[in-house]
Each structure stands twice: as C-alpha cells, then as structure tokens.
Amino acid sequence: MTQSAQLPMMPAREVVARTLWGEARGEGRNGMAAVACVIQNRARNPRWWGNSPAAVCLKPYQFSCWLPDDPNRGKLLAVTDRDSSYRAALELADALLAGQLVDITNGADHYHTTGVAPAWSGGKKPVAVIGNHRFFRLELK
C-alpha cells in the first residue's frame, strides 16, 4: 500500500496546507511559503513528481510528514483552522492553487533542514537558505 492510499480523501487545498504545516510550521509563514514554492516548482515540471500540487505532496517518500511512521502525520491529519499556523498554511495553499504564489526559492525543487546532509545534496550549492531549510534546484534524469 502506498502512503497516499492510506489517507482519507481531502481537497487539494487541505493536502497542500497540511503538507506546509507538517513540513515547516516551526519556520513561520515565510518558511511554509518556501516549501509551497518547492511544491509549485515540482508541479510545473511533472517529469516525476506529479502534475498537480496535491499529487506532488502525496508522492510517496517526498514529504516526510506524510510517511506512516512520521510523528507529524497524526498531527497534520488532526490540525484545524483554530491553529494560526494552519490558517497561514491554508492562505498559502490558496495562493499556490490560484497561481499567485511568488517563488522565493529561485526555482528550488528540493530542500532539507540545515541539521542534516542527505546524499542527494552532496557537493551541491543551495539556491536559497530560508530559516532552517536549504533549497536546491536539481536536474533529475
């Protein structure tokens, strides 16, 4: 079973907002906007990730918050708009889905926190550093 098959059906707006919240709520609005830019950039170049923001978010193993064993998953499925960070994530999702999100990542399609160094980032220079995340534009074959 894939990670998306285990999820309840939800509108694209919620999928995107929950991804932003799950991945970057501690980074504030700007950090969540940067993750939204990565989603947007991947959706614009659907070679591998999917051709819509929701498909990009739910692509298995791309956003750790959706992994079944990630501690954020239960939290992101339960969050409501009473949470101010989630309200900001909903606004950012609306901007992304309306085509009004300005890319603040210089075209990034990958990112990681500053506290880790995944193999895929070895020797690569970030195109942006926003909060505690480094953003990269990679050429996938």
CATH 2nd-level architecture: Orthogonal Bundle
Q: What is the number of helical segments per DSSP (H or I, 4+ residues)?
A: 5
Helix-strand category: mainly alpha
- Ends: how far apart? 26 Å
Note the run of SSEs as H and E: HHHHHEEE
Q: Might you state the CATH topology name?
A: Arc Repressor Mutant, subunit A
The count of domains is 1
Residue fraction in strands: 5-15%
What keywords describe this structure?
single chain, 141 residues, Arc Repressor Mutant, subunit A, 5 helices, globular, SleB_dom1
Mind explaining what this structure looks like?
Helices cover 41% and strands 8% of the residues. The protein has 141 residues and is mostly helical. It has one domain: Arc Repressor Mutant, subunit A. The longest helix is centred in the N-terminal third of the chain and has 17 residues, at 28-44. The radius of gyration is 14 Å and the shape is globular. The mean pLDDT is 91.
